[in-house]
């Protein structure tokens, strides 16, 4: 089991010090999210809360994940970095591939690309991008991006993207793993074609039926035996929780230990975050 620490919603001025702290404590990596803007009024239902409301305040920091990765990589030596999630269809495949491959190269292959289709139509409208075909566009982008990041000459002809023979230099030294987030059948099929699946945060009891659904999607894709990562947050883990989840196929756990009910909606000090992160690490990470 590899342990990650979420740095989503963290104030930017705290991120480097917290990343270094996580590396010292034995975390495998840190993760952070992606939004271009926050609108004055929420007009779209947030899919991952029963209330439909977002749980962060309008002043929450949403830095570019790949610029953050480059900064954190220079301040650490072993820590890995994951976007949770990069909203690919807000961007074009060439810009996305250039940003990810540069971060991967500069970090010494410590990058994992976590992707999703996004939920906020208003964000797509603002940048003039079609919201309704975003899933199909992501499918094509996930064919194009690894080819571009390889550094080899490549081209592509699809419904949405038509690229002449071209190359992007330098290529990454190793392939960048791709994890796919989402719960819809199309998202699970997409994950099955790539290197892993990402969930949000669930209780242990909620995770097992999700794993069954994912297992069926991988079986239907004819790829159930291939190495595959499963990444999730776990609410209120106890003794034995992570061991049981590992036996069920979970390979990565994301710590959201400072995101309490208060912490989700208010900014907190770096000392408070460190205290919560350290308590989690001392209890669960075996070094």
Structural overview:
The protein is α/β, with parallel strands linked by helices and 287 residues long. It starts with a strand and ends with a helix. Strand 4, helix 3 (93-107) and strand 5 form a beta-alpha-beta unit. The chain has one domain (2-284): Luciferase-like domain (TIM Barrel, Alpha-Beta Barrel). It is built from nine helices and eleven strands. The strands form two sheets. Strands 1-2-3-5-8-9-10-11 form an eight-stranded parallel β-barrel, surrounded by five helices. It has a two-stranded antiparallel ribbon with strand order 6-7.
Q: What spatial form do the alpha-carbon principal axes imply?
A: globular
Continuous helix count: 9
* CATH homology superfamily name: Luciferase-like domain
- Return the structural class: alpha/beta
SSE succession:
EHEHEEHEHHEEEHEHEHEH
Write the CATH fold name. TIM Barrel
Strand arrangement, largest sheet?
Answer: 1-2-3-5-8-9-10-11
The poorly predicted ranges are none
Share in helix: 25-40%
Q: How much strand content do the residues show?
A: 15-25%
CATH class: Alpha Beta
Number of domains: 1
């Amino acid at each position: 089991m590899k342990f990650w620490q979420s740095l989503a919603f963290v104030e930017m001025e705290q991120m480097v010090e917290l990343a270094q702290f996580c590396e010292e404590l034995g975390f495998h990596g840190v993760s952070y999210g992606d939004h271009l803007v926050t609108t004055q009024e929420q007009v779209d239902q947030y899919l991952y809360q029963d209330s439909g409301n977002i749980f962060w305040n309008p002043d929450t920091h949403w830095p570019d994940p790949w610029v953050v990765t480059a900064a954190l990589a220079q301040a650490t030596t072993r820590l890995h970095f994951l976007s949770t999630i990069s909203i690919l269809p807000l961007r074009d495949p060439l810009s996305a591939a250039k940003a990810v491959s540069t971060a991967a190269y500069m970090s010494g292959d410590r990058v994992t690309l976590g992707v999703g289709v996004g939920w906020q139509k208003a964000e797509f409208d603002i940048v003039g991008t079609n919201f309704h075909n975003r899933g199909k566009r992501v499918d094509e982008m996930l064919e194009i991006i690894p080819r571009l990041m390889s550094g080899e000459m490549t081209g592509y002809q699809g419904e949405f993207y038509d690229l002449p023979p071209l190359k992007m230099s330098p290529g990454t030294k190793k392939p960048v793993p791709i994890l796919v987030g989402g719960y819809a059948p199309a998202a699970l099929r997409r994950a099955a074609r790539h290197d892993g699946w990402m969930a949000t945060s669930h209780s242990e009891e909620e995770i097992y039926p999700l794993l069954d659904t994912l297992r069926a999607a991988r079986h239907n894709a004819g790829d159930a035996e291939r190495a595959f990562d499963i990444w999730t947050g776990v609410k209120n883990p106890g003794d034995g929780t992570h061991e049981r989840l590992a036996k069920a196929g979970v390979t990565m756990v994301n710590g959201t230990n400072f995101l309490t009910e208060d912490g989700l909606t208010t900014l907190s000090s770096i000392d408070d975050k460190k205290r919560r992160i350290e308590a989690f690490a001392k209890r669960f990470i075996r070094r």
